[in-house]
Design brief:
Blueprint lengths: L1 H15 L8 H5 L5 H10 L2 E3 L9 H4 L3 H14 L3 E5 L2 H4 L6 H16 L3 E5 L10 H12 L8 E5 L9 H17 L5 E2 L1 E2 L4 H11 L8 E5 L6 H12 L4 E6 L8 H18 L4 E3 L35 H11 L22 E3 L7 E4 L7 E6 L10 E4 L10 E11 L4 E9 L5 E6 L11 E8 L6 E9 L4 E11 L4
Parallel strand pairs: 1-2, 2-3, 3-4, 4-5, 6-7, 7-8, 8-9
Antiparallel strand pairs: 10-13, 11-12, 12-19, 13-18, 14-17, 14-19, 15-16, 15-18
Helix pairs in contact: 1-7, 5-7, 8-9, 10-11, 11-12, 12-13
Amino acid sequence: MRKAAALALGLATSLLAASPLTEGASAAKQATPTLAGRIAAAKTAKQINYYPSANGWSRMWTSFDPVTIGADLAKARALGADSVRVIVFPTVFGYPTPKPEYAAKLAKFVELAGRNGMTVKLTLFDWWDGYADVKGSSTWATALLKPYRNDKRVISIGLKNELDPSNAAAVAWAKKLLPVVRAVVPATPVTISVSGEAGVAGLKKLKTLLAATPLDYYDYHFYGNSQNALALIRQAQAAVAPAPLVIGETGVSSRSASEGEQAAYLARVFQGAAAAGVRSVAPWTLNDFRTGAIPPSAVARSAPQYAYGLYRANGTAKPAAAVVKAAWTGKAYPVGALDLGFENPAGQTPWTTFMPELGAATKVRNVAHSGKWSVRLTRTGKNAAGSPSYRVAPLQPVRPGQTWCAEAWARGTAATGTTQVALSWFDVNNRWLGGAGSATLPTGTTGWTRLTVAAKAPAGAAGLQLHLKSGANKGSVWFDDVKLSASLSS
């Protein structure tokens, strides 16, 4: 036991050697931040959620690797991130009194973030449900946060990750802990995140229940339909108004969708948030995870959780990295983000097949209007529900009253049935509102023919899909060089 204690003390001493409590501490504390200033910073933070690729969740701390963390934060900074969210586990750090070696690891993380020009959002009490122990919770939070009372590198505190507003014990605990945290770090805004499952109703309920001890801002974890991002984010804003709202987590796994759709998903959320005036959107996460990196006890241990990263586990960038960099640096999104010419590499298109049981679209080479690739539908069926198609949703948010225009070049060989370009509108609850189609491609064998459609988004429209469709076709058709745009009116 004495040897273990000595080793722990040695680790704490080595980590503290360059921690915010020693060198750099005075610089960090010279200008005492204000609560208003930090709330403003939290509302505009270009924030990334972070775990190392090899060590997710609690393993980030039990296998703490400052070299890897420093390199990862530099990579995030190169994308344009200026803030990082890190999650702390009482059961790992020591409860109710944090262990010195783990307090030192946290200090080192804050220092590494500061070196890379990034602030830190601390999320507390993850993997924890001891809501009856208010005294122990208060002791732990006070000890953990006290060193950061006036540290300008800590931008905000998340009291609890994805608290369930329907859990009365959890809400009662939060009401008692909020004043405790504020007493320790009075100039640091405090929030609580709400999961995508709880949704807008969860945000509204939490705001009502915490009316006597309101949060400084609300943290919404957005994992809904990105095609409806603007409408959904506006609903969330209305639920917590006049308090500010940020999107503290968002993304989709490239195991559940293609890497191309992952990139498009994030682009839609960033654009929807910007249109709603929400200026902080935090992707989940920087990295994919290596096999075995997520602890078996993690709630999020399912396979999709391994592939939410902007970077693959081998360190190479996925298309999502370029999209996030564009959003954070104010640049144009990558030309191939919607893959309108079907030239993206395999697995990097946001297009998906619709009703593939009646005929699946196939990407083919050397039959193209331009470039090298097109998509083909051949020997398709048709039923009362519709025709098979290849579909995509725009990156730009949809507003009722906008006029949307689409075109594609199509050609056929012994084609029959109906081949056209179509627009389909959906409301915020993903209900189909109607659609519009182009003129049909002539049957038989044809050269490349331009098909166009224009339609106004109806009342209640929140999402749009473009379909390249061909039904009851005994031959083959090819599509290429798609265009999709909206007028500026809304």
